[in-house]
Amino acid sequence: NVSAHNKSGFALANHELNAAFVERLDLENRLRRAIHRGELSVVYQPKINLGRGQISEAEALVRWNDPDIGMIPPSRFIAIAENAGLIGLLGAYILTTACQEAVSWGHDTRGASTVAVNVSAIQLQDPGFPDTVRKALADTGLSPENLILEVTESAVMDDTDIVLPNMRAIATMGVRFAIDDFGTGYSNFDNLRRLPIHSLKIDKRFVDQITENQNDARICQAMIALGRALNLVVVAEGVETHEQSLFLKAYGCDQLQGFYFSRPLNRVEFREFVEARNSQHQ
Ligand code: C2E
Ligand code: MG
Ligand code: MG
Ligand code: MG
Question: Considering the entire predicted model, what is its pTM?
Fold first, then answer.
C-alpha cells in the first residue's frame, strides 16, 4: 500500500527532524548554562618559530566538557553559539581569558608573550567588537601588540561594510590579524593588499600530503612565497611529522604549529612546555 508507506516515511522523517531539533535545543541550553557558570576552558597550542626554534606565541582554543555528554568540539558548538546569539558573550570570555593568561606569561622571560585568539564571522560583524577588544586589553593589561586575532577569509568577505572598519579600528589599537585556514576560502589578493593583515596560516589540508603529493607541495611553496612577497608572517597549521616540518622550513615558513610539536595544552602544561623548550633554544 503506497499511501501507507508514504505516510510512515513522512512520520519517520518528521520524527528524525524533531529529534535533531530537540538535541540542538538541549545543546544550546547546556551551552548557555556552561557559559554563565564559567565552565568552558581555554587551551593553548604553541607556535614554533623557525630559526631558533623557540616559542613566543600560542593559539588559544576553547574547550567545552559537558558533565553528561563529555567533550564537545568547537567545530560543533561555535555554530550553535552563533545561532543562539551566544557568540558575543562566549567570544568575550575567551578573549579575556586568553589575554589574562598571556599577561602572566609575560612575567617569565622564558615564556611566550603573544596569544592568538580565533574570532568568528558574527563577532567580526558586530559594530561593538572593537570595544570588546579594547575592554579585554584594558581589563587585563595585555599590550595590544601581544594579541593576534585569527579570522578566516570568508569571515572577512562576509559583510565588508562593517568588517573592514572594525578591522581597521582594531589594527589602529596595535592588535594584529592573521588569516586562518588560508587557501580554503575565497582567496582574494585585493583583500590581502587592503586589509591590515600580519600573518597567513596555511591550512592543515595542504600540509597533510606535502611529503607525498607534489601538487600539494607546490601549493604550499607558492602560498609561502606569496606571504613572504607581501611581507606577511607565514605559519603552517597541522604539522604532524618531522618530514613535514623539514619541507615547510625549506620553503621558508616562519612558524609551525601542530601535533608534531605539541597538542593544545592547559595553562599549566603550556607553561612547563614553553619553559623547557625555550631554555634549550635561546
Ligand atoms: P583553527 O583555528 O584552524 O584551529 C586549529 C585546529 O586544528 C584546532 O582544533 C587544533 O586543535 C587542531 N590541530 C592543531 N594541530 C593539529 C594537528 O597536527 N593535527 C590535527 N589533526 N589537528 C590539529 P580545535 O581546537 O578542535 O578547533 C577547531 C576549529 O574551531 C578552529 O580551527 C576554529 O575555527 C574553531 N575554534 C576553536 N577555538 C575557538 C575559539 O575560541 N573561538 C572561535 N570563534 N573559534 C574557535
Ligand atoms: Mg585558528
Ligand atoms: Mg586554522
Ligand atoms: Mg581549521
Answer: 0.93
